[in-house]
Amino acid sequence: MSESALKPGVRAGRDGGLGWGLKIVVGLIGLLLIAPTAVVIPMSFSSGTTFQFPPEGWSLRWYESFFTSERWMRSLLTSVQIGLLVAVTATVLGVAVAFGLNRAGFRGRGAIRSLMLAPLIVPSIVVAVAIYGVFLKWQLNGTALGYVVAHTVMALPFVVTVMSTSLAGYDRTLDTAAATLGATAWTTFFRITVPLVAPGVLSGFVFAFVMSLDEVVIALFLQTPDIQTLPVQMYNSITLEIDPTIAAASSLMVVATSIVLLMPQFVRRKRSTS
Amino acid sequence: MSQSDNSSSPGIRIAGVSKVYSGTSRPAVDDVSLDIADGEFITLLGPSGSGKTTMLSMLAGFVSVSGGKIEIDGRDVSRQKPHKRNLGVVFQQYALFPHMTVTKNIAFPLQQRRMSKAQIAAKVGEALKLVHLEEYADRLPSQLSGGQQQRVALARAVVYHPRALLMDEPLGALDRKLRDELQREIARMHRELGMTFIFVTHDQHEALTLSDRIAVFNEGRVEQVGTPSELYERPETLFVAQFLGESTCFRGTVDVSAGVLRCGGFTPRAPRLDARLDGSDGVAVIRPERLELHTDAAAVPAGHNQVRGTVTEIVYVGNHHQVGLRFPDGTSGSAMRLAGRSLPAVPGEEVTVSWDPEHQSIVADPADEPTSGRAAEPLGAPAGT
Known about the structure:
The structure holds 2 protein chains of 2 kinds.
Chain A: H1 2-6, H2 20-44, H3 61-68, H4 70-103, H5 109-116, H6 118-121, H7 124-138, H8 144-168, H9 173-180, H10 185-214, H11 217-222, H12 230-240, H13 245-273
Helix pairs in contact in A: 2-13, 3-13, 4-8, 4-10, 4-12, 8-10, 9-10, 10-13
Chain B: E1 12-19, E2 29-36, E3 41-45, H1 52-60, E4 67-72, E5 75-76, E6 88-90, H2 102-112, H3 117-130, H4 146-158, E7 164-168, H5 176-193, E8 196-201, H6 204-210, E9 213-218, E10 221-226, H7 228-233, H8 238-243, E11 248-255, E12 260-262, E13 281-286, E14 292-294, E15 305-316, E16 320-326, E17 332-338, E18 350-355, E19 360-364
Parallel strand pairs in B: 3-8, 3-9, 6-7, 7-8
Antiparallel strand pairs in B: 1-2, 1-4, 4-5, 9-10, 11-12, 11-13, 13-19, 14-18, 15-16, 15-18, 16-17
Helix pairs in contact in B: 2-3, 2-4, 3-4
């Protein structure tokens, strides 16, 4: 307030934050991003047997249908199991890669870094077809191992990126300091490095899990009637039968992924305030 | 808290140590020898890139030694890992563990030494008291000011009674007021602990006020080692003269038999000349507070060297006036006049400048140096005016 009084040439609204033009644009983009969710969640509470928006009546019947259907529950379980396995393997590998890229000085580091991002850049349908072809030969189609391997490849870039950022912010002087204080390399790693990069590891784990949970293109190629992930089951259900159970499934997925993705931030905030 | 286990030992000995980093040809540290006595406060002083930090890193064991050896109490530690050397190190950027409280930071080195919980608690308490941070025991480093963080780092580095405390520009990241305050703290800690302190800085004031002895580094070599007053009053090289304090530097040829320096136009007397300098280029170095200014040449005390000079500028610096001078041979210089004393001239006027030859130092002239004192340069009028 006093500042704008001192500078009569500056309009008061300027230093308050975003101008109203920008605010409208930001609002519109936010709306676009949220719109599908905003439609799906009310639809899942519909009492009708077809997709209706806005719903004419309210009920939990589609949630009941979801949780009592063996097919839906099995695909949910499959997705969670694969997701957890992918998160573990991608985190272990990705953390190792990030440490290597950050600490070892060897030729071609830049090339490896770019290569690690390839799965993000290549269209997933191309990756899916390639994986499908190779896995046919290796007989990995329709196996849990196949899903885990394929999704790990897709999740690695996320883990490596998150971990690299975390390591770039790590001050190596701390290692030196720990050494002068009498700590061995092992002690330094476990008592100083690990606690400080843990939030990065956790974020990587979460990203990998959510990525696997969300992935549909490769999963469609690898599916067999025995093993289908939740997104595949959703896709199949919408092509074969029109049933708002999928709205319930989608809503659950949105809520679950949101919680999982926000988790590292809560952990971090709690740490900094305690 | 006293250091007693090895009081009869020779302390820390740096013997002909060199460091050549791979991929470079010029050594970062070039054949440095230095004996550091037990309990001494020694400062490695020099501009950036002079090798002082590399020397400290070799002492601490972060950087390997390319040649020569480092001995602690007669034992060669050149190949020892940092965590085996039992030295305390304080870094410019504090290097506190951000996820640990002040107490846990200070306890860390004690835990590495497998001390009991009770012992650790007692020693941490003692260390916190030493740096006056008792109330901050449970804070995280991020909740402390820069000065407080550096105190924690100091406490952490001395709590296990290391053989010596190494400090790498520990005050470099602090503002002026905090720097002065922490300087006094460090001096007090040195008195109370009686520990060997090895301090690296580029700040001449820090070096002069804190140290028992100073080693001046330049281009990987030690130019001179001595007490602060030895270095200031009797610099042995032009670099030392110019790096520590201001000076007026007259260039000429040394004539040992006549006991003079032959400058263009005047020949200042120079007692106790180094015979090795005979016939070579030399520089007479005089500190500003040793130069006397006279309007009347008859007032020059007997035995003083004297030369006419023009006052180019007078700068008021509070407790004194800085008087910029230009001499007929082109040398520029500066004199100091305490506030309260009248000024003998105004800019543009000529004065007679005199000084006692006892207060001048004659040093060898490295050919490629500029013709005027580093600190005196800003005062000199541009050439040709």
